[in-house]
Amino acid sequence: MSGLLLLCSVLSLWGAVCGRPGQYCADQPSGLEAFAGDSVTFPCSFVFPRTVTGITNVTIILHAGVGNYCGARIYNSGYGNTTQEYQGRVSLVGDPWTRNGAITLTNVTTSDVVRKYYCCRVRLLIPNKETEQWQNAGGTWLTVRGENEMTMHQPPFIPALVGDTVTIPCHFSISAKKKIQNMSLSSVQWSSSVFFPFCDTDIYNSATGAVHSKNKGRMSLAGEGGTFIQIKHVGLSDSDWYCCRAQVTGDGQVYRTETERGTHLIITGKTNEMKIEQPKEVTFPDSPTISCNYTLPENEDPLWVGIYWMFGDPREGFAYHPDPELIHPRYRGKTRLVGQSDLYLEEVNGMDNTSFYCRVAMRLCDSTATNHIETLLEEGTGTLLRVNGTRKQSQQSQQMDPVDGENADSAVPGGTISIFGPGPLTFFSKT
């Protein structure tokens, strides 16, 4: 019996802590960073079978420790009790009845990272039945930075389709207590790992221009701050963890930092499980909204759902993304979601005969493995947008309307994919 299975067997004496395949899951980001004195919120989304009914109470329990399953309990929302070390600093900010178990820890200190990992455990009270409980196995690695350090933030995961050009964001920040003048970015390095959220293989160095052999001609820096990494034409072999390191100078000092836990890039092939439906064509401004309908997998609730819209053949970029930084300049400030997944456009004159593609990303309990979450990403067949007016007028308008000093079609490299998750839970079914 493997160590994990043995641990699950022991823990099961106190309930279904490890969960059951395809039934019970809890999702957390692999890592979070904060400055000493700040507050940090541990997101925790969870699901359980629809057949479980008669629940009288949903309790969220936070454990902290140095390895898998995080060790000792430090907080129980059911009783409101907290261990002495964390007294008055832990609170439930999510609503367990909507399957949101987010917990906030205030006034974080360097001593909080002695335990390193923080795990969300869910407990259901069902009268006349055995209590069900399960948790995320890996937990969230907490990093607390000092005043003279930088924090580094990356999205926990990014799903993308084979052939996409993917942008992985990397943001760094200096403590608000520091007033630094003339800050400048000196260098950025990226590394990767196949199996773990911390990275051990260097793949890009802006100072030396070194690029890993498998990424030659496909990898470059992107983003307004020059810290994002972009990988062209991704394939299944690019499904790795990616970690960012940066060096910044300011007021004669050098600040260096690297993320403790990277971004998991998840590459998938095209499927049609969600049966995404879009109209073949719409005319603007008669119909400024493009609808997107999809179906949830049968008998399953998602841990997380993300909606994104891309445009162009081949894909030129995002017409809508929850992170405005990643929206193509042509559409920045001109698009938004209406309803759950429909795209609303405004001021798109001169961009006729452009196709828009609805993408739906979803995280679900794996149907066969315990404590494993699978990610789906699918794309609709596209909707052709026609703008009232002649094609000639539209083409002239497009040529005469540069974006940020560049032609609108070349302002952003094509097909960038970046999904910040997990986010708020969405529970609905559109058919």
From TrEMBL:
Compositional bias segments (type: Polar residues): 390-400
Cellular component, GO annotation: membrane
Membrane topology, from the record: Single-pass type I membrane protein
The organism's place on the tree of life at top rank: Eukaryota
UniProt subcellular location: Membrane
Region (Disordered): 388-417
Xref: SUPFAM superfamilies: Immunoglobulin (SSF48726)
Name of the protein described by the UniProt record: Uncharacterized protein LOC116406460
Organism: Xenopus tropicalis (Western clawed frog)
Gene: LOC116406460
